[in-house]
């Protein structure tokens, strides 16, 4: 299996925040969801993937190529969608297309107009009059019209209504039918991922906690509920973080076997949602 | 790269409508032709910068298959292209209004423009966005206002400099000025490229 994106030991320091030692591989032909709380370092990581930011150390390769020597070849193969509108606000979609299209060797006008029609986008209205959903659709139409092999999206579903979110996810699913496309997108709305993601990359406080298939995540993590009397220093070791209440405890484990061995039937083990995982990791950094 | 230069026209369709009346205003006001050439040349390249100082624009351009070196090169080459076009249009306008002008006016206008561009383009990447356009516009107005008195002051009080210049033959003066401008422009280009390549968006 080929890696479309490869980050090796990537570090980027800012004054009050840093992204540390990221090792991340994104496999070709799959949808990878990139999750983490606000400020976890997702956007910074995506910017480094797009060469908008240069890492202080480490190596970044896309399609096996580095940015230093192959910047154009790499970007030719990427479709990008960002959180905000990066297109000139006062311009209409037609003019934006006239600026963007010639940049790509494989721009497909027919395909573009097909998306314009499908998304019901007005060609002659200024971008700033578009709703958030329409801006998103416009970015998407542009990102999809040059036969990109890799689509990188930063929070594409943020600020969208549930109906359009579903439409978007359905569209992404449709795109994946076409052979070897790869989609990498960040989100903090984890329910989006249950529908379409094959892999989950999870960032927390500037570090990559895991990068696993959604199946493995479900197998490796679980919520454990039980009485407070079961907890002591030893038994707590099996948990990422424990949340105590007067009625009992609730905890996230990354070692289901150990929990089963220690507690047997005295606890309830449930499937942990991605939200649960994010929540407990946030509280339990000290354990990681 | 050509696309990046052409982009300015698409971007400024509406502003271009102001371009002609803008030049006509200066012509009717009876401004010196050299100044008109200068102002006309500044119009498009600096309007582009007003767009490009926005972070979003840089994110867009840098996400497209362009290198940072190309993005800067398109600015510097674009400035020359648009200068030549502007001079063409301005010449036509002056001609239509029966205002006489000479090659020297064009040379002075374009020379000053290139110097001004060489001086300000790097600033656009050093200062915070949002302020720089205002800073540049004001400094331009101040310069055109202050420069003549300063020039005459220098001419009167530093006679060695003026003597030196006056004593140069006309071809030597022109070649010297051209060289200074070309070198300044190229150095500015280099500096801006280095600054831009280190930028984060």
From TrEMBL, chain A:
Residues 5-230 form the ABC transporter domain. It holds the Pfam family ABC_tran. GO terms for molecular function: ATP binding; ATP hydrolysis activity. InterPro entries: AAA+_ATPase, ABC_transporter-like_ATP-bd, ABC_transporter-like_CS, ABC_Transporter_VariousFunc, P-loop_NTPase. Gene3D superfamilies: P-loop containing nucleotide triphosphate hydrolases. Keywords: ATP-binding, Nucleotide-binding, Transport. It comes from the Bacteria. This is ABC transporter ATP-binding protein.
Automatic annotation (TrEMBL), chain B:
The keyword Transmembrane helix applies. Pfam families: ABC2_membrane_5. The keyword Signal does not apply. Keywords: Membrane, Transmembrane, Transmembrane helix. The chain crosses the membrane at residues 16-44, 76-97, 103-124, 131-154, 174-196. InterPro entries: ABC2_memb-like (IPR025699). Signal peptide: none annotated. It comes from the Bacteria. This is ABC-2 transporter permease.
């Amino acid at each position: 299996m080929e890696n479309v994106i490869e980050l090796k030991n990537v570090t980027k320091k800012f004054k009050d925040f840093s992204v540390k030692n990221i090792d991340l591989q994104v496999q070709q032909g799959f949808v990878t969801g990139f999750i983490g709380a606000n400020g976890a370092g997702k956007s910074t990581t995506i910017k480094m993937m797009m060469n908008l930011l240069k890492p202080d150390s480490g190596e970044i390769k896309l399609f096996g190529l580095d940015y230093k020597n192959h910047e154009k070849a790499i970007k030719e193969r990427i479709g990008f969608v960002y959180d905000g509108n990066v297109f000139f606000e006062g311009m209409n979609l037609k003019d934006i297309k006239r600026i963007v299209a010639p940049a790509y060797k494989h721009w497909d006008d027919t395909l573009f107009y097909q998306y314009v029609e499908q998304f019901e986008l007005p060609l002659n209205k200024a971008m700033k009059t578009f709703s958030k959903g329409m801006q998103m659709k416009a970015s998407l139409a542009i990102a999809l019209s040059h036969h990109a092999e890799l689509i990188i999206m930063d929070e594409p579903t943020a600020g969208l209504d549930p109906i359009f979110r579903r439409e978007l996810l359905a569209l992404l699913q449709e795109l994946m039918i076409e052979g070897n496309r790869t989609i990498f997108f960040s989100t903090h709305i984890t329910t989006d991922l249950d529908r379409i993601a094959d892999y989950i990359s999870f960032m927390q406080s500037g570090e990559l906690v895991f990068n696993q298939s959604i199946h493995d995540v479900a197998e490796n993590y679980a919520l454990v509920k039980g009485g407070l009397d079961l907890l002591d220093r030893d038994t707590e070791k099996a948990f990422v973080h424990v949340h105590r209440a007067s009625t009992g405890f609730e905890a996230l484990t990354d070692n289901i076997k150990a929990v089963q061995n220690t507690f047997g039937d005295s606890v309830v083990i449930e499937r942990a949602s991605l939200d649960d995982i994010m929540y407990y990791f946030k509280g339990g950094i000290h354990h990681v | 790269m050509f696309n990046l230069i052409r982009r300015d026209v698409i971007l400024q369709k509406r502003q271009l409508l102001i371009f002609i009346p803008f030049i006509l205003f200066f012509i009717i006001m009876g401004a010196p032709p050299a100044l008109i050439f200068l102002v006309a040349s500044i119009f498009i390249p600096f309007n582009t910068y007003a767009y490009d100082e926005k972070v979003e624009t840089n994110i867009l351009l840098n996400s497209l298959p362009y290198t940072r070196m190309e993005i800067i090169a398109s600015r510097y080459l674009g400035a020359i292209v648009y200068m030549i076009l502007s001079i063409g249009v301005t010449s036509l306008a002056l001609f239509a209004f029966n205002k006489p002008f000479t090659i020297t006016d064009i040379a002075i206008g374009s020379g000053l423009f290139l110097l001004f561009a060489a001086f300000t383009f790097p600033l656009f990447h050093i200062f915070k966005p949002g302020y720089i356009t205002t800073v540049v516009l004001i400094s331009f107005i101040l310069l055109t206002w202050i420069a003549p008195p300063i020039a005459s002051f220098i001419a009167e009080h530093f006679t060695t400099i003026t003597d030196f210049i006056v004593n140069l033959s006309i071809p030597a003066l022109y070649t010297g000025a051209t060289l200074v401008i070309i070198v300044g422009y190229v150095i500015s280009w280099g500096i801006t490229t280095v600054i831009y390549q280190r930028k984060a968006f």
